[in-house]
């Protein structure tokens, strides 16, 4: 069964294209493969960051959430200055 793929067009500067081509050549892969790898990595990082942000928001909105004023934070930091 053939995989379903979509087509998209992206414009990049000639310098970026040259760099992409050089990396793709060094890996013995196509530019398309390299760009798909970059997109996969970006989406993985985005999903991870989004999950972490949501976890922190859930904690911050919980009934046991505790917040400190900037003065309290400054005071605590000052205790560690030598």
UniProtKB/TrEMBL annotation:
InterPro entries: Arc_rbn_hlx_hlx, Non-func_TypeII_TA_Antitoxin, PutA_RHH, Ribbon_hlx_hlx. GO terms for biological process: regulation of DNA-templated transcription. Residues 18-44 form the PutA RHH domain. SUPFAM superfamilies: Ribbon-helix-helix. Gene3D superfamilies: Met repressor-like. CDD domains: RHH_CopAso-like. PANTHER family: PTHR40688, RIBBON-HELIX-HELIX PROTEIN COPG DOMAIN-CONTAINING PROTEIN. This is Ribbon-helix-helix protein, copG family. It comes from Nitrosomonas ureae.
